[in-house]
Specification:
6 strands; alpha+beta; 424 residues; 19 helices; 2 domains; four-stranded mixed β-sheet; two-stranded antiparallel ribbon; 60% helix
Length: 424
C-alpha cells in the first residue's frame, strides 16, 4: 500500500506507468480473437480439463509432458494448471478466447508486479525502463496468446524472487515456498529456482540471520504448493519421481528427447535477469556510464514498441493463418458434409491429430473417431498446405488410409487447403 501511495504522489512516474500499461494492453489484446494460438497443446489440454469436469472426478495430476516420453514412461505435470482451466471453463462456458485472455493477462500481471517491486527498490526511473522493455517486447506478446501451463511461470517466478529478496518475516519464506511449489506444479524447469533458494540460504548464513524455522516454512510452503502432485506420488509409488530418475539415466538413448524447450528457461529465469539488470543500473547510477546505458535502454524500449505496434505484434505462433475463425470454418464444412464415421488430420504443424478441429467438432456435438482409429476410418478430412498434397504425404494418419480417392479439395484461405479423402 505504501508503494501505491508513493506512486500516486509521483505524478510523472505514475502517468508514465499508466501510459505503458495502456499501450501494453492495446498491443497484447489488439485483434485478439484473430491472433490467439489454439493448436497443439492448447486444445488438447482444454479437452482433457473439460473431460475431467464432465466426469465429476477430482484430478491430482495435469497433462503429460509429451517431450519426456521414453520407453513407454511419461512424466506428468501437476494439477494446478488444470484446476485453473476447469474453473475458467465452467465460468466462461468453455469460451476459448476468454480462457486464453486470462493466460495472456498473467504476463502483464507479472510485469506490473516487477514495476511495483522495482519502483520501491530501485526508484521510478529504473522501474519504468525495465517495465517498458518487458511490456513492449514483441516476443512476449505473441507467445502470451495461448492457453499453456508455462504462462504461469513468469508471475510465480517474480513472486518467489521478490519474497526472498525482501524476506523479513517468516510469512515471506512460507509464501516464497508456495510460489515455488506452484511453479514446479506447472513446469519442471522451475526446479532451477533451487539455485536461487540456495543463494539466499547462503546469504542468511553469511549475514548470521539463518533460522532453521524460516527455511522449514519455505519447504512446507513448497509441499503445500505441490500437494496434489505429491499426493498422487504417494498413491502411485512415486511414479513421476522414479520416471525422472529413469530419464536422467537413459535420456541419451532416446532419439528426439528434449529436456525442455529452450525458451522455458527464459520464462523461468526472466525475473532473475530483470533483477540483475536493475541492480546493475542502480550500482552505476552515480557514474558516467549510467546515462548512456539508460539511453540505450530507452531506445531499445522504443524499438520494441514500434515493432509490437507493427507486424511483429501481429505475429502468431505457427502455423501461419491457422486462426480460430478458420478452424471453426473447417469444422463447419465437415459438419455440413454430414459424415458418419471419420477422422481428422493436419500436416500444417507437428500435431497431425488435429486436436484443434476435434475441439470445435466436440463443441458442436459431432463425434470424431479416436486418435488411434486412423487405420479403420473410412473418411479422413485433411488440412494441409499446397506443398504437402495427400498423394505424396507420408505421415501415418494419411498413409494408413491408402488407397484413397480425393472427394474434394477446398481452399480455406491462409494458403491452406481442406481435403476429403475416402478409403477405396
Amino acid at each position: 500500500m505504501k508503494t501505491l501511495k508513493a506512486l500516486f504522489k509521483d505524478k510523472f512516474v505514475f502517468w508514465c506507468f499508466v501510459f505503458i500499461t495502456a499501450m501494453s494492453l492495446f498491443i497484447y489484446f489488439r485483434s485478439y480473437p484473430t491472433l490467439v494460438t489454439f493448436n497443439l497443446d492448447s486444445p488438447f489440454h482444454l479437452g482433457e480439463a473439460r473431460s475431467i469436469v464432465e466426469s465429476g472426478k477430482i484430478n491430482l495430476i495435469g497433462p503429460i509432458d509429451a517431450s519426456k516420453e521414453m520407453f513407454g514412461r511419461q512424466i506428468f505435470l501437476g494439477a494446478f494448471y488444470y484446476y485453473v482451466i476447469e474453473i475458467l471453463g465452467i465460468v466462461s462456458s468453455w469460451n476459448v478466447i476468454l480462457i486464453s485472455a486470462f493466460f495472456t493477462f498473467l504476463w502483464i500481471l507479472a510485469f506490473i508486479t516487477i514495476f511495483l517491486w522495482f519502483y520501491k527498490s530501485f526508484g521510478g526511473t529504473i522501474a519504468l525502463l525495465i517495465y517498458s522493455l518487458l511490456a513492449f517486447c514483441p516476443t512476449f506478446v505473441f507467445v502470451s496468446r495461448q492457453i499453456l501451463n508455462t504462462q504461469f511461470v513468469p508471475f510465480f517466478g517474480v513472486m518467489f524472487l521478490m519474497l526472498l529478496v525482501n524476506r523479513k518475516r517468516k510469512l515471506h519464506y512460507f509464501l516464497a515456498g508456495i510460489f515455488w511449489g506452484l511453479g514446479l506444479n506447472v513446469h519442471y524447469a522451475t526446479a532451477l529456482w533451487l539455485f536461487i533458494a540456495l543463494w539466499f540460504l547462503i546469504d542468511d548464513l553469511r549475514k548470521k540471520k539463518f533460522m532453521f524455522s524460516n527455511w522449514l516454512l519455505l519447504a512446507l510452503g513448497g509441499v503445500l504448493g505441490e500437494s496434489p502432485f505429491l499426493l498422487f506420488e504417494l498413491r502411485h509409488n512415486f511414479y513421476n519421481i522414479q520416471t525422472v530418475f529413469f530419464h536422467i539415466k537413459y535420456f541419451k538413448l532416446s532419439q528426439g528427447y528434449t529436456f525442455t524447450v529452450w525458451y522455458y528457461y527464459v520464462y523461468t529465469l526472466l525475473p532473475v535477469a530483470t533483477y540483475l539488470v536493475a541492480s546493475i543500473l542502480k550500482r552505476i547510477r552515480k557514474t558516467n556510464v549510467f546515462f548512456p546505458a539508460f539511453f540505450l535502454g530507452v531506445l531499445l524500449s522504443v524499438y520494441f514498441l514500434i515493432q509490437s505496434l507493427g507486424p511483429a505484434g501481429q505475429k502468431t505462433l505457427y502455423p501461419y493463418g491457422w486462426s480460430i475463425e478458420r478452424q471453426k470454418n473447417v469444422a463447419q464444412i465437415i459438419i455440413d458434409d454430414k459424415p458418419k464415421e471419420f477422422e481428422v488430420a493436419e500436416t500444417i504443424c507437428s500435431d497431425t491429430r488435429a486436436m484443434d478441429i476435434r475441439w470445435w467438432l466436440r463443441e458442436a456435438g459431432v463425434p470424431v473417431m479416436d486418435v488411434v482409429s486412423y487405420k479403420t476410418s473410412p473418411v479422413l478430412y485433411l488440412v494441409t498446405t499446397f506443398d504437402r498434397p495427400p498423394e505424396t504425404e507420408t505421415v501415418w494418419e494419411v498413409s494408413s488410409l491408402r488407397p484413397f480417392n480425393i472427394e474434394f479439395k477446398k481452399d480455406i484461405g491462409g494458403e491452406l487447403y481442406l481435403y476429403k479423402l475416402v478409403r477405396k
